[in-house]
Design goal:
Pathway: Protein modification; lipoprotein biosynthesis (diacylglyceryl transfer). The chain is mainly α and 262 residues long. Helices cover 58% and strands 6% of the residues.
């Protein structure tokens, strides 16, 4: 059995300036996006992307992730708390960000980028889909360092069961690590290999939606559910699991109905 080491959430302090681990994880996510984006563009020159395009994508994506992710956390999961503490809304290291909100924010940002650049929406989302999971992994590692979003109680005999002392003395699943490995590493490998060859338009986007939806749905069985605007819903599923259902359905439909790329 393990005990969470209770990392200091502040990685670096220089005078009055503090750099949080959570912020560093997002910086890592953005750097990985740039690096992997350039590698993807080089291995698939037929897609017609260059370094400047990827820089522009990152700019729009950062806005979508930060604004959408934070608003999603506030509106989907803890509206009562944040409406009572509005000054904490921009403090991203307190409570973090919602993936589903960030996802919606990125969709809007990519639509705006597509209009500005003259590219089709699906052309944009098919390109970025393999670049996203490593950022998700970095975010989950940030959650683990912060000691937030801990797991459900686990069998004490599970070798990696972990006690989060500020919660209770119950051994729990380190669900943040499960998600980093599943929605992060595993999904990245699947999409990176899938997108290496020409696919029907919308297929890579569909693979991302389906893959993330299934992996996140499964991970929620090991993670203490967030309060959510509806709490635990019918069939005993969490808010996050029900938010995954339309993602899974949309992903399956996109994979089945995508048009041949030209």
């Amino acid at each position: 059995m393990l005990t969470h080491p209770r990392f200091d959430p502040v990685a670096i302090s220089i005078g009055p300036v503090s750099v949080h681990w959570y912020g560093l994880m997002y910086l890592l996510a953005f750097v990985l996006f740039l690096v992997l984006g350039r590698l993807h563009a080089r291995r698939r020159p037929d897609l017609g992307w260059n370094g400047q395009d990827i820089d522009d994508l990152l700019f729009y994506g950062v806005l979508g992730v930060v604004i959408g992710g934070r608003l999603g956390e506030v509106l989907f999961f803890e509206p009562g708390y944040y409406f009572s503490h509005p000054l904490e809304i921009p403090q991203l290291w307190k409570g973090g960000m919602s993936f589903h909100g960030g996802f919606l924010g990125v969709l809007v940002a990519m639509w705006l980028y597509g209009r500005r650049s003259g590219r089709g929406f699906w052309q944009v989302t098919d390109f970025i889909a393999p670049l996203v999971p490593t950022g998700l992994a970095a975010g989950r590692i940030g959650n683990f360092i912060n000691g937030e979003l801990w797991g459900r109680p686990a069998d004490p005999d599970l070798p990696w069961a972990m006690i989060f002392p500020w919660v209770d003395a119950v051994p729990r699943h380190p669900s943040q690590i499960y998600q980093a490995l599943g929605e992060g590493l595993l999904l990245f490998v699947i999409l990176w290999l899938f997108a290496a060859r020409p696919r029907p338009v919308r297929a890579v986007s569909g693979a991302f939606l389906l893959g993330y939806g299934v992996l996140r749905f499964a991970a929620e069985f090991f993670r203490t559910p967030d309060p959510g605007i509806f709490g635990t819903l019918s069939l005993g599923l969490s808010t996050a699991q029900w938010l995954c259902v339309p993602m899974i359905a949309a992903g399956a439909w996109l994979l089945a109905a995508g048009k041949t790329q030209r």
